[in-house]
Design goal:
- It is a single chain.
- The chain is mostly helical.
- The protein has three helices and no strands.
- The protein has helices at about 1-20, 25-55, 60-80.
- Helix 2 (about 25-55) runs antiparallel to helix 3.
- It is flat.
- The termini are far apart.
């Protein structure tokens, strides 16, 4: 479970840092970099956990997880365009 909590915690700390120190260029750049790395690590951790708990075919579980991420990206783009 630590593989999921570490990226989420890192992302939360980086976003809080960005909120508090966003006007300073250096800390803002570092916070954005940590956020991006945390999101990438979270996606890999979710995929790993999905394959661990898949009741049957890991192929279908992997496809479902990937589809869910793509649907989330599409929904975010749609909401951002409104």
């Amino acid at each position: 479970m630590g593989a999921l909590t570490v990226p989420l915690t890192a992302s939360a700390v980086a976003l809080l840092t960005l909120y508090l120190l966003g006007a300073a260029k250096g800390p803002a750049l570092a916070a954005v970099a940590v956020t991006v790395m945390a999101y990438a690590a979270f996606a890999a951790a979710v995929q790993n956990r999905t394959l661990q708990v898949a009741p049957g075919s890991t192929d279908m579980a992997g496809a479902g997880s990937g589809s869910a991420f793509n649907a989330g990206i599409a929904a975010g783009s749609l909401l951002g365009a409104v």
